[in-house]
Here is the input.
Amino acid sequence: MQAFRKILKEMTDLELLWGEPMANLTSFRIGGPVACVARPLGEYALRELLAAVRSEGIPHVIIGGGSNVLAPDGPWHVLVIQVFRAAGKMLKLCADGAQIRLVHVGAGVKLSTLLRFSVCEELEGLEALVGIPGTVGGAVVMNAGSREGSIADALVWVDLLDESGGKRRVFRDELPAGYRNMGLPENAVVLGACLELRTTKRAFLKERMAKTMKQRRQSQPIGFPSAGCIFKNPPGISAGALIDQAGLKGLRFGDAEVSMRHANWIINRGKARAADVVALMEHMEGVVFSRFGIQLEREVRVLGEGKTFH
Ligand code: EPU
Here is the structure.
C-alpha cells in the first residue's frame, strides 16, 4: 500500500478510489475490495501511470468496461487501471467517398453510445454489436461480436500504447484477428480506433437492430448481472447447446447459476462469489469433457487467478 501511495501521490490528473469493491466495476457485480482504482484523466496521465507501475513493478490490471471479467473475492492487493476517462472521446466523423464514413472513437466510449451514434448518423456496419455491453477498447481487444460478425469487420486501424509506453497505429491487415481475439501485441493498451461504416437509412437500421435485440432478449438472460457468454464456442459447435445437453441448466453454486434461458451464461442471483462462479465453471468444463470429450475454453477473463483463488 505504501508503494502505491508514494507513486500515486506524485502524479496529477488521476481520479483515485481507495479500497473500491470490484463488484462496483464489473457487470457480474462480483469482486472484493482492491487496493486502489486509478482513472487517468488524459492520455498523458495514462502513459505516466503505466510507465511508473511498470518500472516500479507494482501489481496492476487494466480493465475496460468490466463486462467480460470475473474479479476475485478479495481483498486484492493490486492497482486497477481504468482507461475510459483517458480515452473517452468520441466521435469524429470523416467523410471518405459518397457512401463510406470513417468514425474515430476513443477506447473508453461505451459500445451502446457508439451504436446510438451510428443510428443518428445513419451508418451501418456495427449491427452485430447490438446489445453487447462494454467499451470500444474491450471490444477491440477481444474482437467482440456475435454470429452476425465482429468489430474487426469494420476496423481500419487501432491506436495503442505498447508495452514500452510508445504510441502506435496498427492497421487491420497487420492484425491476425480471429474468433474473440484481435491478436493485438501482448500488454498493449487500446486508446482508440477508426471504423469504416456505410451510409444507410435510419429506419432500416433501427428495424434491424430492434430485431436483433428482440432475439437476444428471448434467448439470453439480459438484465441479470453476468459476463455474457462464459465459454467460447468450440469450432462448429455451440458451447450453450453442449452445456444444455449435459443437463446443467439451472445448476446453482451459491448465488451463481447456469441460466435457464441460455446455458452458456452464468448469472449472479444476488450475492454470488467469484469462488462460486469458478467452481461452477470447473464443474461445467468437467461434465462437458466427460460427456462429449470437448474441452471448453473460457471467454470470461478471470482476474487474479492462481494468486487469489487457491
Ligand atoms: N442452444 C441450446 N441451449 C442453450 C443455448 C443455445 O440448445 O441453452 C442452441 C441454440 O438453440 C442454437 C445454438 O445453441 O441452436 C446456438 O445458440 P445461440 O444462437 O444462442 O448462439 P451462441 O453460439 O450460443 C453466440 C455468441 C453470443 C452471441 C450469439 C448471437 C459466443 C460464445 N456466443 O452465442 O455472444 O450473442 O451468438 O449472435 O460466441 C458473448 O460472446 O458474450 C455472447 C453472448
User: Anything to note?
Assistant: The pocket of EPU is lined by residues 146-147, 219, 228-229, 232-233, 238-241, 244, 262-264, 299 (CB under 6 Å). Residues 306-310 have pLDDT under 50 and may be disordered. Residues 143 and 179 are 7 Å apart (CA to CA). The longest helix spans residues 274-292.
